[in-house]
């Protein structure tokens, strides 16, 4: 790989992604496992989308947001896994600089929308359980669409800021990324110019993109817990907690892996631990979401059965 000389230093043309394993004998195993994970994730999330479309009972705000979450999960895994599978097949580990930044942009765009969408889902549960009389007006179709549109706009601003900021850095070599996709912490470690501004941006925008949503989610669920505990019927409490439990599990996985990925900057060198967190973030989480949301939900299970059997429910 020949670096090009730039006016302000050295401009890199491509990076080398080491991938998950360096032992050639293990690559076919990794390829099969990740192809399977990709197909299961895409199939599972498409099934959830189909179930929401065919089942009139699921034409509610909560499932509108869940359908959007399924689209994001398909997007998140598609941004990282197919390119990795392509490199395993071709035995090429290089990725062009522009492709690396494009992957980074779309990954942060989709993950950012995820942050806000999970917050919108918590707000929806708060309104449904704590403000049932005004729920239909406060969570109208217009409000739902505005919440999704604002989520995409905020995530776009965040992703574009990080991508433009990383494009200002110089890379003098080595150009080896010890990961299976391009992301900010790994690129920071390769830069030969100061990453202080980039790290400040990551921290500052991270507080806005993740900190604020977490506060809103926790606040919503404190109100929900208080309201649910006031329900006298055990069946009513169980039903309310089951819908909230699925959402909280997804929130825990999503934010837990995010904190480990981005809040340890400068403290540890890129390692196999980062790859493990990356697998959780980009593959395991999107793969588990359909299972988490359908496991204890008879409406979703019934709709999925109808989808698989080719039947359509009528209102």
From TrEMBL:
<protein>
    <recommendedName>
        <fullName>Olfactory receptor</fullName>
    </recommendedName>
</protein>
<feature type="transmembrane region" description="Helical">
    <location>
        <begin position="105"/>
        <end position="126"/>
    </location>
</feature>
<keyword id="KW-0325">Glycoprotein</keyword>
<dbReference type="GO" id="GO:0004930">
    <property type="term" value="F:G protein-coupled receptor activity"/>
</dbReference>
<feature type="domain" description="G-protein coupled receptors family 1 profile">
    <location>
        <begin position="44"/>
        <end position="293"/>
    </location>
</feature>
<dbReference type="InterPro" id="IPR017452">
    <property type="entry name" value="GPCR_Rhodpsn_7TM"/>
</dbReference>
<dbReference type="Pfam" id="PF13853">
    <property type="entry name" value="7tm_4"/>
</dbReference>
<keyword id="KW-0812">Transmembrane</keyword>
<feature type="transmembrane region" description="Helical">
    <location>
        <begin position="146"/>
        <end position="166"/>
    </location>
</feature>
<dbReference type="GO" id="GO:0004984">
    <property type="term" value="F:olfactory receptor activity"/>
</dbReference>
<dbReference type="InterPro" id="IPR000725">
    <property type="entry name" value="Olfact_rcpt"/>
</dbReference>
<feature type="transmembrane region" description="Helical">
    <location>
        <begin position="63"/>
        <end position="85"/>
    </location>
</feature>
<dbReference type="InterPro" id="IPR000276">
    <property type="entry name" value="GPCR_Rhodpsn"/>
</dbReference>
<keyword id="KW-0552">Olfaction</keyword>
<keyword id="KW-0807">Transducer</keyword>
<keyword id="KW-1133">Transmembrane helix</keyword>
<keyword id="KW-0675">Receptor</keyword>
<comment type="function">
    <text>Putative odorant or sperm cell receptor.</text>
</comment>
<keyword id="KW-1003">Cell membrane</keyword>
<feature type="transmembrane region" description="Helical">
    <location>
        <begin position="200"/>
        <end position="229"/>
    </location>
</feature>
<dbReference type="GO" id="GO:0005886">
    <property type="term" value="C:plasma membrane"/>
</dbReference>
<keyword id="KW-0472">Membrane</keyword>
<keyword id="KW-0297">G-protein coupled receptor</keyword>
<feature type="transmembrane region" description="Helical">
    <location>
        <begin position="29"/>
        <end position="54"/>
    </location>
</feature>
<keyword id="KW-0716">Sensory transduction</keyword>
<comment type="similarity">
    <text>Belongs to the G-protein coupled receptor 1 family.</text>
</comment>
